[in-house]
Amino acid sequence: xxxxxxxxxPGSTPRSGxxxxxxxxxxxxxxxxxxxxxxxxxxxxxxxxxxxxHLGDPIxxxxxxxxxxxxxxxxIRPPTPERQRRAFTQALQGxxxxxxxxxxxxxxxxxxxxxxxxxxxxGLLPPSVKVFANAxxxxxxxxxxxxxxxxxxxxxxxPACADSVADLAVADQGRAMLTCHNGGxxxxxxxxxxxxxxxxxxxxxEGEEPSSAxxxxxxxxxxxKD
Length: 226
Description:
The protein is an alpha/beta fold. It has helices spanning 63-72, 85-93, 119-124, 144-149, 162-172, 180-183, 187-205, 216-225, and strands spanning 51-54, 74-76, 102-105, 131-134, 153-155.
């Protein structure tokens, strides 16, 4: 099932108490991109840039990295009504967003309105798609095997909430079963999900290894068959 969407992060959202051992720092604005997309044209209109589909609410914590991403890519963010299952399916069928190359969902609290990424939705994706970067530590509701068989790298946000989960586990002393979805509700985790999803997209589109891909084995099998 799809997760709740358009849910604001409340002021009482917990923060991780331990120092982050592997912080995900946003890239500085104006930071030179060592591997720009070969078809990107920063000086021209966005219509000439490769397209990325942004599912969910606007970036909240890592706007500098988002600005850098926008330099090389045309980021399309469908409004909430277009992300509902029926409307989203029709948009894919009609190629409403053209031949986009990546999908990223930077927040667990929005962007899941179309429900499960099953054979129906994945089968409607244009062949240009190379990567799907999703927030959250798991991948329930996403057919990662089928994505891999189509040559699409799927990345989750597990590393972004590892420290928060450790904090909660220590605090509760084993009195509750805790998962990354619990720790994923800290401010640090929300910021990390955003940053990691954008970095994974840039890595794949620039021919580099993403940080948290979970279906590379299926891509390797596809290459062997080809």
